[in-house]
Design a protein that fits this description.
By secondary structure, the chain is mainly alpha-helical. It has four helices and no strands. Helices cover 77% and strands 0% of the residues.
């Protein structure tokens, strides 16, 4: 059994750093997907549908970047909080939406 002072001074080790790096890798993958989808969308005829699709891709990408940046800042704390369910849902929604729009632009 550990004293209460030892529990309060828990050493998180490298877990927050690994999690921060994972968020960076995910952000990079999201950025590459967005760039490739935009490239495909802008190669087309320039129809309003393609332009709206490109704008939606950019908005989703920016939302994910904001979410990831906020999470990486939280992980810099001595005792980082857990990921809130709302933030987790937003990250999943951004990822799925970006993938759907990227596939829609390709076809």
């Amino acid at each position: 059994m550990t004293p209460s002072g030892a529990a309060a001074e828990r050493d998180a080790g490298l877990q927050p750093e690994r999690t921060r790096l994972a968020w960076r890798r995910t952000t990079l993958a999201c950025s590459v997907t967005a760039v490739l989808a935009l490239r495909q969308a802008l190669r087309g005829s320039g129809s309003p549908v393609e332009v709206v699709g490109a704008a939606v891709i950019v908005l989703i990408w920016l939302a994910f970047l904001g979410l990831a940046h906020r999470r990486m800042r939280q992980l810099a704390a001595a005792r980082p909080p857990g990921l809130a369910p709302r933030s987790a849902l937003a990250a999943v929604a951004c990822t799925v939406a970006l993938s759907v729009f990227a596939v829609a632009v390709i076809f």
